[in-house]
Amino acid sequence: MKNTKDLEYQIFTCMLLNNKVLDNSVFDEKYFRFKNVLNYFKEVYRKYGAIDTSILITDGKMKNVAETIVELMEYEVSWRNINSYYKQLKEMFRENEIEKINDQLKSKAIDYEQYKQAFYELTLDDYDEEELLKPSNISNSIAVEREYTYIDELDYLLKGLEYGKLNLFSGITNHGKTTLMIQLAKNFIKRHKKVFYFSGEQTATEFKNYLYVGLCDKSQIEFIEDQNNKRIRDVKPLDDIVKYFDDIYQNNFVVYNNDVIQNDIVKMMKVMNKAFNQGTRIFFIDNFMQLDNSEMLEEQTKIIEQFKRFAMKNGCIVNLVAHPRKTMFSKNRLTIFDISGTQNIANKSTNICTIMRTDLLPEAEFEEISKLLLLNNYDIDKCQAVIEVIKTKGNACKMVGLYYDGELKQYMEARKISPEDAERMLMATKKKRRSDTYD
User: Fold this and answer.
1) Domains of the chain by range and CATH?
2) pLDDT, tens digit, 9 for 90 and up, residues 228-262
3) What is the 3-class SS of the chain, one letter each residue?
4) Whole-model pTM?
């Protein structure tokens, strides 16, 4: 359970600094652990029309009032931030309540129907209400803090990855989602950004090896042949390179230890908050379907909502991998409606990108994607994979051609062709289609 004392005492200190805040805000005692202090302050304000240390000490009805005032004087706060403190307190109350009902479900103190009802009642709470803003209260700053994927065309389309936002990545099995996620993580770590990574399908050792190989140049890796089959080779960094990376990136990434921690959303939020408090601001969840209860459609929206709130509240980047829904039709190119779960998952994401390998495309999709790539000046024959932006608040939803370095296990943007060559190839495709139709 999170301790709310600091937040509560910050609120009480604000009341001492400017007791008029009690005129403009409603403070519900259910969120407070120190209800006696809150109710006493309200009582004094109703009685005297003001709150200050002299009145409190003179009135003296609350036990240990002097000691409480001394503690409050140690807090450095701005009374203008009182609504922010109160909102954080309500958020913390809600997180504690969620933790309680999850523990009750696990201990079988409540059944799943009672669990759902309790969760529903929490969503009815007013913890996320905002005050109405007048134009003079709204900032006109458009400064945006963002990071980059270092795939130039993708960064242009998305306008980078903004802090405070949730990004969703999808694709069918074996098309490169994890490869892309680890590549993005590697790029941030190289620039000494702090990264958190949850891998539901890799061990921590596998993740670290994959990451470090991507940080190497080709002279820093070695290939180990399988003793029973010389055609099979594993790749790893040289031992001295591993030690070197351990030293310089010691504080740049942490990995969720799913060997000892249960994979549920409550534990995930705890660990992510711990990483955030240690300075981490970029998070990868690969993939969220590995969390307990995530197969239940009614739970997926709640899980995504918690990731979104975490990103917004803490000003973090959360990159989330989601599997596509299973459909009766086999296809590689996905739409928003193919992403696992309900439409709400897509609605809560700022950017949605999918990845496809071109060598696994069926003929009908190959032709369609070839045309769409040409519209953005890529020749599909020179692309080994494609990222498609299917939702963004950035510049545009288009496709980006990629090629893959198998030794370093990373994608790079394919070289573009000239607009004239792209137009010529498009015309040749149209002519061939007409010819095939007449035949």
Assistant:
1) 5-123 (1.10.860), 146-438 (3.40.50.300)
2) 888 888 888 899 999 999 988 888 889 988 776 66
3) CCCCHHHHHHHHHHHHHCCCHHHHCCCCHHHCCCHHHHHHHHHHHHHHCCCCHHHHHHHCCCCCHHHHHHHHCCCCCCHHHHHHHHHHHHHHHHHHHHHHHHHHHHCCCCCHHHHHHHHHHHHCCCCCCCCCCCHHHCCCCCCCCEECCCCHHHHHHHCCEECCEEEEEECCCCCCHHHHHHHHHHHHHHCCCCEEEEECCCCHHHHHHHHHHHHCCHHHEEEEECCCCCCCEEEEECHHHHHHHHHHCCCCEEECCCCCCCCCHHHHHHHHHHHHHCCCCEEEEECHHHCCCCCCHHHHHHHHHHHHHHHHHHCCEEEEECCECCCCCCCCCCCHHHECCCHHHHHCCCEEEEEEEHHHCCHHHHHHHHHHHHCCCCCHHHCCEEEEEEECCCCCCCEEEEEEECCCCEEEECCCCCHHHHHHHHHHHHHHHHHHHHC
4) 0.67
